[in-house]
């Protein structure tokens, strides 16, 4: 079960780096709140255009219906345009996820197995992946809304809620909304929370973020080790 939620949710984070303008605190009207949301989103996309690559440490906490305590994981992620992603879990279990556009490989050393498939078989991951590939806008893939309760994050910057737009051609939509919080000084991403239709919530906190460090292509290339089984999977979300 832990692997399934990792696969579904990690790709939804590739939209999650931003620099945004300072936004005043205090009570505001609904129209002003929406303008603030649009300002943040505009700056997310502006920052993305200037970002060639990105790396950061992460802490993931997933609250699952029926479990008394959240599942906690940590590791480091790497992104490089266009469309390359590496997501390394280091604790409590080692797992490496490699994405090249729509192709994904998931290496689990403990099981001596590599799962190979298509990332867009996961409907919840399509919009963020398209953003990573540079062919989509957040306001085209999501409905932008103020966060209920006018909640604000660090430094008084408002949280941003993104609601996935319904696509009649897609089935099995699992993601209800994504909530973003940015750093108060650098305005890079601080946290991302992914809310699913099941009531499960995964929150990711990013630390030690570095952008445009000229990550090598080799970092995103995975060679299957000798003796490791390769398993083809048509729908990664079902694993």
Low-pLDDT residue spans: 14-28
Number of helices: 4
What is the residue-averaged pLDDT?
A: 75
Adjacency order of strands in the biggest sheet:
7-8-9-10-11-1-2-3-4-5-6-12
Order of helices and strands: HHEEEEEEHHEEEEEE
The rounded Rg comes to 18 Å
Kindly describe this structure.
The model is unreliable at 14-28 (pLDDT under 50). This protein has four helices and twelve strands. A twelve-stranded mixed β-sheet has the order 7-8-9-10-11-1-2-3-4-5-6-12. By secondary structure, it is of the alpha+beta class. The longest helix has 21 residues, at 30-50.
Quick description:
This protein is an alpha+beta fold and 239 residues long. The protein has four helices and twelve strands. The longest helix is centred in the N-terminal third of the chain and has 21 residues, at 30-50.
Keywords, please?
alpha+beta, 239 residues, 4 helices, 12-stranded mixed sheet
Secondary-structure map with pairings?
Elements (H helix, E strand, L loop, with lengths): L1 H9 L19 H21 L2 E11 L7 E10 L3 E8 L3 E6 L2 E6 L4 E6 L7 H7 L5 H4 E5 L13 E5 L10 E8 L6 E8 L4 E11 L17 E5 L6
Parallel strand pairs: 6-12
Antiparallel strand pairs: 1-2, 1-11, 2-3, 3-4, 4-5, 5-6, 7-8, 8-9, 9-10, 10-11
């Amino acid at each position: 079960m832990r692997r399934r939620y990792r696969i579904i949710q990690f790709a939804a984070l590739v939209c999650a780096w931003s620099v945004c303008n300072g936004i005043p605190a205090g009570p505001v009207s609904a129209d002003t709140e929406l303008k603030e949301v649009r300002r943040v989103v505009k700056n997310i996309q502006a920052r993305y255009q200037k970002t060639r690559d990105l790396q950061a440490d992460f802490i993931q906490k997933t609250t699952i219906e029926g479990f008394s305590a959240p599942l906690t994981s940590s590791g480091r992620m790497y992104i490089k345009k266009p469309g390359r992603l590496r997501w390394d879990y280091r604790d409590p279990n080692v797992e490496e996820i490699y994405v090249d556009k729509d192709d994904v490989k998931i290496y689990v050393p403990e099981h001596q197995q590599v799962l190979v498939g298509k990332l867009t078989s996961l409907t919840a991951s399509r919009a963020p992946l398209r953003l990573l590939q540079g062919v989509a806008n957040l306001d085209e893939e999501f409905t932008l809304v103020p966060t209920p309760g006018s909640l604000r994050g660090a430094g008084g910057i408002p949280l941003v809620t993104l609601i996935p737009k319904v696509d009649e051609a897609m089935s099995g939509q699992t993601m209800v909304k994504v909530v973003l919080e940015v750093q108060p000084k650098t305005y890079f991403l601080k946290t991302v929370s992914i809310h699913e239709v099941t009531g499960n919530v995964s929150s990711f906190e990013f630390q030690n973020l570095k952008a445009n460090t000229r990550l090598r292509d080799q970092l995103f290339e995975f060679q299957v080790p000798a003796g490791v089984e390769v398993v083809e999977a048509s729908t990664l979300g079902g694993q």
